[in-house]
Structures are given as structure tokens and as C-alpha cells.
Design brief:
The protein is of the alpha/beta class and about 400 residues long. The chain has 12 helices and 10 strands. The protein folds into 2 domains: about 70 residues, no CATH class; about 230 residues, 3-Layer(aba) Sandwich (Rossmann fold). Helix 4 crosses helix 10. The chain binds zinc ion (ZN). It comes from Myripristis murdjan (pinecone soldierfish).
């Protein structure tokens, strides 16, 4: 501190303090007025006393500000509400969708959490979503995740691709269910990673290890090491998850090249079960640099509002499985059942080396009957473990202290 500035500084310091005090007083009085006005506004007009009516007139600015806030709150609430089209409207809309699917030259599908809810992977931000549950301090069980299997929607998309009606699928889901439905890798971009894949980036090109369990239990924002190592170079393996606040750079399974090319060629984009809040930020997926008439037509299936609704050719408020079932009916196509024996994860998976058997505590996807492996079953007790970290806990537990640190227990 400069001594010479002593006297001059002290008077200006006093002024500053007085100014600060005045500001605090003003804020307190404003808060008092806000509380008063809010209380009066809650009453029906007829029930307000003369004095209260006069107070409203005196604080007109505050009344207006509070009304503006109320409008904003209502809009926000409406955007979060789940809306369902009635049966007739749904059928009507789906037949329009069927026409678009039949006549599309290059149909690209964008998927989000909503297509996996039927697989008992809870939605993120819906009324019963994981985010909401964690906000309320409730636990989400890890067994919810490991038991998930491709849904009717996953199987329909796979069929539509097989029949060449869908050219590419871009998903923000990390649950690996598109891959497990049998959709070929070249037709898939998993923009936020795949919970079953770990990679060695020391090998060139990066070497992939598909596993039949969630590889992400130790990983979190900027910490991607899975605790296992590459059998070729000994390098540490990392997960492929793109956490909130990160930019995904892995070529696979993100396949940004495939996603960008697909969007460029697309004349129809079908969005399924995504709030689009994250996807909308990826400019190259929407051809926004083209004039409106040259952009792909948007068909959106989601129960809640999305930021792309105003740009959509058609918005369908329905559950993905319900809409897809109707769509396949309209298209006169069979919906294949998910068959575990054909789940590619079992043929893609690299078995763990004996010394790695205890490197994780997540439940292993049980192989189909007749293909059981012979490693000892050590995963039986993990069923009720709450999710602590990994791709599913990412972001949601932001600001919440981890109650248990069992990371090194395994
Ligand atoms: Zn390696």
C-alpha cells in the first residue's frame, strides 16, 4: 500500500464506504418493495385494500418487472411440459412422416436420450429424468444401465437403414444401443462416445477395445483413464466419452466426418427423442449456412419443446416407440425383435486378460445362452450400487460432493 496516498486516500475510502452503504440500503429497500408488491399481486384484485392498491400504483416499475418475470417463468414451464398428440392427430402426422421417409433421397436420423427411456435408461431432464432425480437427492441404480437393451425404436432405425430408407444415424447417446441393435459402424456417429469402448491413443491409428461392460466407472471431466492398458504398446486406455464442457476429438466412435457428410447430403432430418439443446450448437448438422429453402426438411419427434420446433416441417408429440410402431405400420415393414444372439457387442468385445478381471466393478452384459465365457463370475454383487461417476453421472453431480470414494477399492 502506498503511504503517500494516506490522507487523500482515506477520504476517498470513506466516500467509497458511504457509497457502498447507500447501495446496500437501496438494495434492501428495493428487496422490501419487491416483497411487498409480490405479496399484493398474489391477492385477487377485489381483495386488495386501498392502501395496497396505492402501493401498486406507487411502485409501477416493480409491478412491471414482476409481471415480466412471471411471463418468463410461464414460458420456461411450458417448454418443460410433456405434450401428447391425441391418437387421431398422431396417426395423421405419422402418415405425413411416412410419405417424407418414402420420398427422401438422403434421410439422416438424429437421436437423443428419449429413444432409450424404454430401455430403462432414464431420460435426463424429463420430469422423472436422472437429472431431476439427482437434484432431489435420489440415487440412480447402476443396474438400470447394464440391463438396457436396444428398444423398438433402435430396432426400427436399424431396419430402415437395412432397407436403405435411412442413410446415417447421428446419436448423442453414450449407451451403445445403436451399435448393439446391429447398425453398422460406418452408418453411425456417436458424437458423445460409447460407454462400451475404450481406446489407446498412443497407438497410431488409435486402437479400439470394445468391452461388454461400462468402461467409464473411473472417468469424469478431463479424466479419461480407465485403469487398463493397451496390449500392444502398454499405453493407458481411455474412455471415448465427451463430457460436458469437452470437445470430442476421437475419430471413432464419434465419426464427426460421417455426421458432417450425412448432414451435407441430407434432404430430410428426423430428430428422435432429443431436446436438441446440445445438438443445435453443432452448426454443421443443420446446414444453417444455406438459405432456408435449401436446408433439409426437419421432422421432430419429442414430447417436450425443442429450440428447432419453429423450423420444423412437422413436430410430433409422442413417445418414440409409439411413433415408430405406427410409422413401420404405415410403411408396411416388419419390426425386428432384438436378439441377444445377434448383438454385435459379443463378437466385437475383447476379453479382459486374467490380471484385468478385477479392474472394474460394473456388471457385464450376460452373453446369450450357449456363448457363456468361462471367466469366474465376480459381478453378481454390483446390482444395487448407485452410480457414482462415469458417463452417466457426468455433469449431473456437478457441485455435489461425492459421498463415497471407492475408486481404488477395486
Ligand atoms: Zn497402444
Amino acid at each position: 500500500m502506498d503511504e503517500d496516498a494516506g490522507t487523500g486516500g482515506s477520504s476517498s475510502r470513506a466516500e467509497k464506504k458511504a457509497l457502498q452503504r447507500a447501495k446496500i440500503l437501496q438494495r434492501e429497500s428495493e428487496q422490501g418493495i419487491f416483497k411487498l408488491v409480490a405479496r399484493i399481486l398474489k391477492k385477487a384484485e377485489a381483495e386488495r385494500s386501498e392502501e395496497e392498491a396505492a402501493a401498486l400504483l406507487r411502485h409501477r416499475d416493480t409491478v412491471e418487472e414482476l409481471c415480466r418475470r412471471q411471463v418468463r417463468r410461464n414460458v420456461l414451464k411450458r417448454k418443460q411440459e410433456e405434450v401428447f398428440d391425441d391418437a387421431e392427430e398422431l396417426k395423421n402426422k405419422v402418415s405425413q412422416l411416412a410419405e417424407a421417409v418414402k420420398h427422401a433421397q438422403h434421410l439422416v436420423v438424429y437421436t437423443g436420450a428419449g429413444i432409450s427411456t424404454a430401455a430403462s435408461i432414464p431420460d435426463y431432464r424429463g420430469p422423472n429424468g436422472v437429472w431431476t432425480q439427482l437434484q432431489k437427492g435420489r440415487a440412480v441404480s447402476a443396474s438400470d444401465l447394464s440391463k438396457a437393451e436396444p428398444t423398438l425404436t433402435h430396432m426400427c432405425i436399424r431396419m430402415l437403414h437395412k432397407e436403405k430408407l435411412v442413410q446415417h444415424v447421428v446419436s448423442q447417446n453414450c449407451d451403445g444401443l445403436h451399435l448393439r441393435s446391429g447398425l453398422p459402424r460406418h452408418a453411425l456417429s456417436e458424437l458423445h462416445g460409447n460407454m462400451f469402448i475404450e481406446v489407446c491413443t498412443s497407438c497410431s491409428p488409435a486402437r479400439e477395445y470394445v468391452r461388454s461392460f461400462d468402461v467409464t466407472e473411473r472417468t469424469s471431466l478431463h479424466r479419461h483413464g480407465t485403469g487398463r492398458s493397451c496390449t500392444h504398446c502398454g499405453g493407458e486406455l481411455r474412455d471415448t466419452i465427451v463430457h460436458f464442457g469437452e470437445r470430442g476429438t476421437l475419430e471413432q466412435p464419434l465419426n464427426w466426418k460421417g455426421a458432417a457428410e450425412a448432414a451435407k447430403m441430407a434432404d430430410v432430418i428426423l430428430c428422435l427423442g432429443s431436446s436438441l439443446k446440445v445438438l443445435k450448437k453443432y452448426a454443421c448438422l443443420w446446414c444453417m449456412n444455406r438459405p432456408v429453402s435449401k436446408r433439409p426438411k426437419l421432422y421432430i419427434i419429442n414430447l417436450q419443446w425443442t429450440p428447432k420446433d419453429d423450423l420444423a416441417t412437422l413436430k410430433i408429440h409422442g413417445k418414440c416407440d409409439d411413433v415408430m410402431r405406427l410409422l413401420m405400420e404405415e410403411l408396411n415393414m416388419q419390426i425386428p425383435d432384438y436378439d441377444k444372439a445377434e448383438d454385435p457387442i459379443f463378437s466385437l468385445a475383447t476379453p479382459l486378460r486374467p490380471e484385468e478381471e478385477s479392474s472394474h466393478t460394473r456388471e457385464v452384459i450376460a452373453p446369450p445362452a450357449g456363448q457363456e465365457d468361462h471367466s469366474p463370475d465376480t459381478q453378481g454383487q454390483t446390482e444395487a450400487t448407485a452410480v457414482q461417476g462415469g458417463w452417466f453421472g457426468r455433469g449431473y453431480s456437478k457441485g455435489r460432493k461425492k459421498k463415497q470414494k471407492k475408486k481404488n477399492a477395486a
